[in-house]
Amino acid sequence: MREKITDSYFWNYLRLLTQFNSKKFSFTISLMVLISLSEGIGLLLLIPLLQLVGLDVQQGALGQIAGIIASFFSYINVKPTLGVVLIIYVIIICLNAFLTKIQTTESSQIQYGFAADLRKKLFKAISESRWLFFSKKPSAHFAHALTNEIERVSMGTGQFLTLIASIFVLAVYIIFAINLSGPIAGIIFIIGIILLLLLKKRSQSSHSKGEDLSNTTKNLYSITNQHLDGMKTIKSFNMEKRNVETFSKITHGVANKYIETIKSYADVRFLFDVGSVIILSFIVFFVVEIMKISTAELLILLFLFIRIIPRFSTIQRSYQYFINMLPAFVNVINLKRECESVSESEFESGELVFEKEIQFKDVSFSYQDTLNIKNLNLKIRKNKITALVGLSGAGKSTIADLVMGLLRPDEGQITIDSMELKNFSSWRNQIGYVAQDTFLFNDTVRNNLLLARNDALEKDILEVLKISSADFVFNLPDGLDTILGDRGVRLSGGERQRLALARALLRKPSLLIMDEATSNLDSKNEKRILKSIEKLHGDLTILMIAHRFSTIESADVIYLMEKGLIVEEGSWEEFNDKNGRFRELF
Questions:
Q1: Could you tell me if residue 348 is inside a domain?
Q2: pLDDT of residue 53 exceeding 60
Q3: Fewer CB within a 10 Å sphere, N or C end of the chain?
């Protein structure tokens, strides 16, 4: 069963490889054929060279080949002197070397180009997959496939091309050997096949070793991400020693898997080399003592043997490397298909223009059978501040994700001015989003801002920095060109939030979503953010999500949520004028 699956993925791999750049692939194969032919011509020129140094080449099949070569020289009216033959031989070998150089370059372009194309397509599929699918998978799994697995595919592709080239050259040698001495050529060929069959079991084990390697390295990526992301917690609990021990154990496991794989290759190479030299000894004894062949024919056969057997070895080794790579290719393709099966692009249709209101109509949504939102009805009106409040787990952030189209309702509709939300790409271009945990890239302040709108002018940047009270950036060592460090580590929490607000505003959004953006801030920084939002009141539609009630006093409409339901709605004044659930919680 496993062999059938392997064969299926092999043909899938071959199809993708040939389709990647069919012209370059065909050109490379043509070069392999030409290299094989030049190898054959080089072999033929050995015969007149042996004759010119005094060996008898006129007997048997060797004599017939020598006659054909002599006829060729006679046809081109060139006397086959030692100097002439050596010049032709040098030209042929130089041509072979030149073709090999081009073929190596072309093969490397296919090898790394194919890997780059596969990586690009996988990253595109990941990027376009639905948020719910993406958020459920560990990010390390994606990183592992995009880096380690595709790197293995790249190396396997190189070995696959080496395998094809070796087969072409081997075919030329075998054809020549058959013409020279059919029985001996048959013996050499059969010996090569027997060696391959004897080592077949070891080659097949390379596939299972490849699967183990994929699983082990995936685990390493996952552990690495967890340990680096949790370093502050690890240090706070003084767990560095245990952390290192756990990581070392996983690292040694990966190293052992690689060592097992290399050991398997080395064992096969050892058995092949030992087997071939023993067989060579038997063949020499047989042809000298029993067949009584001439010295010239013996030299040619020995030359062919020492060229043919290593080719069998190269074919076997390349095949083994390729089979070991195939599980990595399977993982990449399966992940790509999985992402494509939940792609967002299939839902995109029609332009959305936000002029009046966003409306939830009997919207229900659940995470894995746990109901999070049930029959929700609410409105977010243009140029108004709408607030969602409630205790943690009430479903507020889920609503924000639904508004952005990151999540899809299980039931009901979300409409923008009566048009159902389907074109998520068009809609997200109109949204500015500020999250509770602000993410900043390890880049300059300027480039972090320009992520929102790469064509923004300097005056646009200065304007949003002022509105968001983020003009502190001009006091940084290099101003807008200051590198912020990983996740913006060089800034305080309040500074990161204000910069995130500036980035969101730079998009000139139709809707600004503040998803508990002030929950981690002290009162001073919270007031700065709220003051910035107040400046936008009436000019921008704002959806504020909070569990601290003090942050939503300026809201036009407040929805109080509990367990995925709206239990109260109204303005700040209306809530405070009645003894309801809002006042009780406040």
A1: no
A2: no
A3: N
Give the count of domains, the chain: 2
Is there a single domain that holds both residue 214 and residue 322? yes
Q: Can you give the residue range of the structural domain that contains 540? A: 357-585
DSSP state of 130: -
Same domain, 208 and 266: yes
Crossing angle of helices 82-127 and 22-52, in 10° steps, is 160
Residue given tokens 């923008």 in the structure block: 416
The Cα–Cα gap between 386 and 378 comes to: 10
At residue 256, φ and ψ (nearest 5 deg) are -65, -35
Q: Is the dihedral of CA 217, 221, 226, 231 positive or negative?
A: positive
Confidence of residue 1 (pLDDT cuts 50, 70, 90): very low
Q: Which among 218, 217, 201 has a CA at the least distance from the CA of 267?
A: 201
Count CB atoms within 10 A of the CB of residue 214. 24
Mean pLDDT of 321-330: 85
| Predicted TM-score of the model (pTM) | 0.76
The span from the CA of 190 to the CA of 180, in Å, is 16
Rounded-to-integer distance, Cα 541 and Cα 551, Å: 16
Angle subtended by helix axes 240-285 and 182-198, to nearest 10: 160
Q: In angstroms, what is the C-alpha Rg of the chain? A: 36
Q: Has residue 277 been placed in a domain?
A: yes
The last residue of a domain, from among 319, 343, 367: 343
Determine the pLDDT at residue 292.
62
| 3-state secondary structure (DSSP) of residue 537 | strand
Task: Indicate which CATH number applies to the domain containing 162.
Answer: 1.20.1560.10
Contact 564, 373 (CB under 8 A): yes
Do 320 and 376 share a domain, yes or no?
A: no
Q: Which residues contact 100 (CB under 8 A, 6 or more apart)?
A: 35
The chain-wide mean pLDDT, for the chain, equals 78
Boundary (domain end) residue, out of 310, 343, 376: 343
301: how many CB neighbours lie within 10 A of its CB?
A: 22
- Helix (H/G/I), strand (E/B), else coil: 367: strand
